[in-house]
Amino acid sequence: MPLPLLVALVMLVGCGGQLSFPAAQKRATERNLAAHDKLRDELYLEADGAPFDPILAVVELNQEALPTGGIVGLRPGEGLYAMPDGELALMTKPCIRGSSCGCEVSRDYKYLRRPDGTVVVVRLTPVIALREIRVASCGVGCGQPAPPALRSAARLGVKEISAIRFVEGSYPYELVVETCAKPVPRP
C-alpha cells in the first residue's frame, strides 16, 4: 500500500471514519487549488495571450450597460460598459454561492491580451460538491453585516465588442461546511 494512502487511512480510522473539520477543510482547499490551477493553465494555453491585470473602474448605479444580446460569451449577471473615453469594461459576476455572510464560492476571471490586440476573458467556474462535517457545536450567521461593496468593472483596453473573446472551463470544488444539532448565533 502506498505511504500517502496508508497515512490517509490511519487518519480516517483515528477520527472515527471522518476527518476533523479543519483537516477536511485543508484537504479540500489543497485539492480545489490544484484543480483550479490545472484548468487555468490549460485555458491560458488555449487563449494564447499574455496575462494582464485590468484597471478597475467604479460603475455608477445610473451608468448604463451596453445591450448584451449579441455578445457571444457574456453570462447572466455580467455587464459590458462603455466608459466615457469609449473603452469597454466588463462587470463580472464572481459569486456563484453566497450566504447571509457574503460569498462562499467565487468564479475566477483572468484577462489575456493576444498579439493581434484582442482581449481574452478566461472564466474559471467551480462545480460545487458540498461536504458536511458534523461537530458538537457551531455558530450561524456572521455578526455585523459588511457594508455593500462598490460595483466595479475591469477596463479591457479595447473599444470594440468584436475585440473581446471569452474562454471558460469548470473544475471540481469541494465545499466543506460545519453542521451541528444546536447552532448558536454569532455576535
Kindly list the characteristics that best describe this protein:
187 residues; 4-stranded mixed β-sheet; 4-stranded antiparallel β-sheet
Written account of the structure:
There is one protein chain. The chain is α+β, with helices and mostly antiparallel strands and 187 residues long. The chain has a 4-stranded mixed β-sheet with strand order 1-7-8-11, covered by helices on one side. Strands 2-10-4-3 form a 4-stranded antiparallel β-sheet, with no helix packed on it. The protein has helices spanning 3-14, 21-47; strands at residues 50-52, 55-58, 79-82, 88-91, 95-99, 102-106, 108-113, 119-134, 139-140, 152-155, 164-179, 184-185. The termini are far apart. It has one domain (17-185). The protein has 2 helices and 12 strands, in the order ααββββββββββββ. Residues 1-16 have low confidence and may be disordered.
